[in-house]
Write a structure and sequence with these properties.
Blueprint (H helix, E strand, L loop, with lengths): L3 H11 L4 E2 L2 H6 L14 E3 L4 H14 L3 E3 L17 E3 L7 E5 L4 E4 L5 H9 L3 E2 L12 H7 L6 H4 L6 E7 L5 E5 L11 H5 L8 E8 L1 E2 L3 E9 L2 H13 L6 E6 H11 L9 E9 L1 H17 L4 E4 L3 H12 L1 H5 L5 E4 L2 E2 L5 H14 L5 E5 L4 E8 L4 H20 L18 H20 L22
Parallel strand pairs: 2-4, 3-4
Antiparallel strand pairs: 1-2, 5-6, 6-10, 7-11, 8-9, 8-10, 12-14, 12-15, 13-14, 13-18, 16-19, 17-19, 18-19
Helix pairs in contact: 1-3, 8-10, 8-13, 13-14
């Protein structure tokens, strides 16, 4: 626990109403959306400005107190779980859209802005902020930046990293720096902006971001193709991309996922299909019409059983919402749901899904697989029960084999969820010892006291840790 003298200093910085040390509040922020990881922080702070955050960090650096920046807690890699105690920082007071610059096509925001709120605000001005993680209704921009979040539109538009032009950041020593800006070009020194995006709060705290916007597409169309063969669905994905078309969305769901989504949403998804592809294209009317026609032909040429285009936006939104609800619907099956995140080259989707199914059978597990087929990002998800240690051991072994297979196929252990504590044991699979040491050197140079989100990325023994 923190000494009272330290708590008093924190109260001086942010005010008594913005410091919480009660057990109830500390338990509320002892976990995120990652199952089986929990640890109590010593205090919860809600600063109101960059200067307050800088003063908090200076104090914590002097006292060697761990700091965990936290958005809405939707993290799926235990990235915002305070495993070393210390302080959790909330951004509920720093949640304003500071500017929407229509001349430079940028938005300047504080880290606590809800992703969907930003999307809606810029769309009112005929603009688009493309990153759209499934948690966008509650996730924050700061959390998205820390994790370099992806989303359904990632195939065509890219991920969060591709839309961060500049940052205001408080470093672990309390210094405030600004990187980038409203610029189309900037090669002045190291690209600190890119380094900080996806750093999971281990190198500093983001207090402001300049984000790139694009013009809102003229129109969009959504379609659903069903298959009785996983290979046919995977080959369709490759064929679409090879025809030099880039759909906005190209999502995949396997039969177990379709079954649980339909049982919940009841929108007419074909539960007898082995796989479905949810495909969306946006742009100029004539381009969208042409692409949807060509994609339909490709789907049929690769043995799609049915190909249906949504008749209106309401039906299209039903399909998108059903895909976004995949995790929450699977979570209805058992007390614990573990959703993982492995990415392979899109040409390896079929072998990867086949391997996942074989691993599920090997360990007698139900694994529902869905994800962003267009960019090879799959989410194998296991409904289980953390109280059943024997089954949990099988789950751990299954996911280790899944990550090994992804790397073997030229992929990675995470495409958008981050490393956090959950993936830390597997990071060396992807980067090797040399890569880990290079990252560690950067961390040590900026954060020699290791106060920023410790026990993340580099720790190798935290995957099964549950502490209260």
């Amino acid at each position: 626990m923190l000494e009272q003298s330290v708590i008093n200093k924190l109260i001086e910085i942010v005010g008594e109403s913005n410091v919480e040390t009660s057990t109830t509040e500390r338990v509320s922020y002892s976990y995120d959306a990652t199952p089986n990881f929990q640890a109590l922080p010593d205090a919860i702070l809600a600063p109101q400005s960059t200067e307050e955050i800088a003063n908090i960090i200076k104090l914590c650096n002097e006292e060697k107190i761990p700091i965990v920046p936290r958005g809405s807690g939707t993290n799926l890699s235990a990235g915002t779980t305070p495993l070393a105690g210390g302080i959790v920082i909330l951004f509920k007071h720093m949640n304003r859209i500071l500017e929407i610059d229509e001349e430079n096509l940028t938005a300047t925001v504080q880290p606590g802005v809800i992703t969907l709120d930003l999307c809606n605000a810029v769309e009112e001005k005929g603009l688009l902020y493309p990153p759209d993680p499934s948690s966008m209704k509650i996730s924050t921009i700061g959390g998205n930046i820390n994790e370099n979040s992806g989303g359904l539109r990632g195939l065509k538009y890219g991920v969060t990293r591709d839309y961060v032009l500049g940052l205001e950041v408080v470093l672990p020593n309390g210094d405030i720096i600004r990187t980038g800006g409203k610029l189309a070009k900037d090669v002045a020194g190291y690209d600190l902006t890119r380094l900080l995006v996806g750093s999971e709060g281990t190198l500093g705290i983001i207090t402001e971001a300049i984000l790139k916007l694009v013009p809102l597409p003229e129109t969009k169309k959504t379609m659903l193709a069903t298959y009785q063969s996983m290979d046919d669905a995977a080959m369709t994905v490759s064929a679409i991309i090879s025809q030099k078309m880039t759909p906005t969305t190209l999502e995949f769901m396997d039969q177990p996922t379709i079954e649980v989504i339909e049982a919940y949403a009841k929108i007419g998804l074909p539960t007898d299909a082995k796989a479905v592809l949810l495909i969306e294209q946006d742009g100029m009317v004539e381009v969208v019409d042409r692409d949807i026609k060509r994609i339909t032909e490709i789907c049929k040429a690769h043995h799609a059983v049915t190909v249906e285009v949504a008749k209106d936006e309401m039906e299209a939104e039903q399909l998108r919402s059903a895909r976004r609800a995949a995790l929450s619907t699977i979570a209805r099956l058992k007390p614990t749901t573990i959703l993982e995140d492995a990415t392979v080259p899109r040409s390896q989707i079929a072998p990867m899904v086949k391997a996942i199914n074989e691993i599920a059978e090997k360990y007698s597990l139900k694994i529902c697989t869905f994800g962003h087929a267009g960019d090879g990002n799959l989410h194998p998800t296991v409904p289980t029960d953390a109280r059943d240690r024997e089954e949990m051991d099988r789950v751990e072994k299954a996911f280790e084999e899944i990550f090994q297979k992804a790397v073997e196929l030229g992929g990675t252990i995470t495409g958008e969820h981050g490393v956090g504590a959950m993936k830390a044991p597997y990071l060396e699979m992807k980067l090797g010892k040399e890569g880990i040491e290079a990252m560690r050197a950067i961390k040590q140079s900026l954060d020699p006291n290791n106060i920023m989100n410790p026990l993340k990325m580099f720790a190798k023994d935290t995957r099964k840790r549950v502490v209260l």
